[in-house]
Design goal:
By secondary structure, the chain is an alpha/beta fold. It is built from 14 helices and 14 strands. The strands form four sheets. It has a seven-stranded mixed β-sheet with strand order 4-10-9-8-7-5-6, sandwiched between helices. It has a three-stranded antiparallel β-sheet with strand order 11-14-13, with helices on one face. Helix 2 packs antiparallel against helix 11, helix 3 runs parallel beside helix 11 and helix 4 crosses helix 10. The protein is globular. The termini are far apart. The structure holds pyridoxal-5'-phosphate. Pyridoxal-5'-phosphate binds next to helix 4.
């Protein structure tokens, strides 16, 4: 990292040690002079291709009229609604600017340099990033063959330096989910000195696939825990950034409260999330559409001779016969954005987010050409 004489520009040694970072690439801003009218097909960020509930859009429009005021710093209407939905008391619910922000907070509230964090590999990149910023050590535990976290191996990796464990179900990018009894095993056996984070960004997809709600078994845990959920996926609100925590105790919620900024979720986002939550029928409808399209995409990949991982999320990952970078670049040239899996051993894997039916058709046709 650059320095001025002996003085590093960025004095934090943990940040200095990290490789350069930038957010995932999105489409280039559209060029008004260009004749290519079609924006790229966004199959790279696990977004919903469907807009949110019309009720959420209306609520957000209405909220625009009062943005001269700060938002409710306690997100009261939203936590009340989430409490009614989950049975977790309001005082144990913390809302954030996307669950990504809350993942960063989880590392801030638990870790000091030299501590250890256990996370599945491959998984969501923010687990590793937050860990590195705190100067802690990431202990990566490979996922099982079914693409789910490996609870037994993760428990076996615990040492007396472990302070945080990330379990993700369904896991992104491998798509596998855990049974409630497997989560229960971790909840029971993980030492009380470790915060157990259950990342359920794709919770509604797991429920649609017949999964069991893990909340009852998490409640059996005596030690600290928090479930992380998101409005970005099933509720189609990725652009306004709302995620939330269901915490095992007020003490855990209190740690996250101390770590947060005062007005972390804007008023438009709070209004949209509340209205989206109240339109459960819309959410279920778009989850059902995305799940059906995911299965059609996986079938199409099998038709190309690939072996996609069995995913219950809104994405499908697969190994290919070519380096992922070549496939990603080839699809980008054809106006289709997908992602790779930046983890050792996955250099020839790609991940496709479920889009509209025409996106599936376009991606399969382009892949057929690239894999010939
Ligand atoms: C496993 C997992 N956790 C968390 C997130 C972050 O979601 P958001 O910050 O949009 O709530 C994602 C997003 O892709 C994810 O895949």
């Amino acid at each position: 990292m650059a320095s001025r004489g002996d003085q590093p520009v960025i004095p934090n040694v943990h940040i200095q040690a990290m490789p350069p970072w930038s957010p995932p690439p999105g489409p280039e801003p559209s060029d008004p002079e260009s004749d290519s009218a079609r924006p790229p097909r966004r199959m790279n960020l696990n977004e919903s291709p469907y807009p949110p509930s019309p009720r959420a859009i209306e609520a957000m429009r209405e909220a625009c009229g009062t943005v001269n005021r700060y938002p409710d710093a306690h997100w009261r209407a939203l936590t009340r609604a989430l409490s009614a939905r989950t049975g977790v008391p309001d005082a144990r619910i913390v809302v954030g600017n996307g669950s990504d922000e809350l993942i960063a907070s989880a590392t801030r509230v638990t870790l000091t340099p030299g501590d250890e964090v256990i996370a599945p590999a491959p998984s969501f990149g923010s687990f590793a990033k937050g860990t590195a910023i705190q100067g802690a050590k990431l202990v990566s535990v490979p996922v099982r063959g079914d693409g789910a976290c490996d609870p037994e191996a993760m428990l076996a990796a615990v040492t007396d330096r472990t302070r945080l464990m990330f379990l993700a179900t369904p896991n992104n990018p491998t798509g596998g989910m855990l049974a409630a009894r497997e989560i229960q095993d971790v909840a029971r056996h993980l030492p009380d000195t470790v915060l157990l984070v259950l990342d359920e960004a794709y919770h509604e997809f797991a429920m649609h696939a017949g999964g069991e709600d893990p909340l009852p078994v998490m409640r059996e845990r005596a030690g600290p825990w928090a479930i992380f959920r998101s409005f970005s996926k099933a509720y189609g609100l990725a652009g306004v950034r709302v995620g939330y925590l269901l915490c095992g105790s007020e003490a855990v919620a209190g740690g996250f409260q101390v770590a947060r900024n005062a007005f972390t979720v804007n008023a438009i986002a709070q209004a949209g999330a509340l209205a989206a939550l109240e339109d459960e029928a819309h959410m279920r409808d778009i989850v059902a559409k995305m799940a059906a399209e995911r299965d059609r995409l996986a079938d199409g990949l099998r038709g190309l001779g690939l072996v996609p991982m069995p995913s219950v999320g809104n994405f499908v990952s697969t190994a290919t016969s070519r380096p992922a970078g070549e496939i990603i670049a080839g699809l980008r040239e054809r106006g289709i954005l997908i992602s790779g899996i930046p983890a050792p051993g996955y250099e020839n894997h790609i991940r496709l987010t479920v889009g509209l039916p025409e996106d599936t058709d376009a991606a399969l046709a382009a892949l057929a050409g690239l894999l010939e």
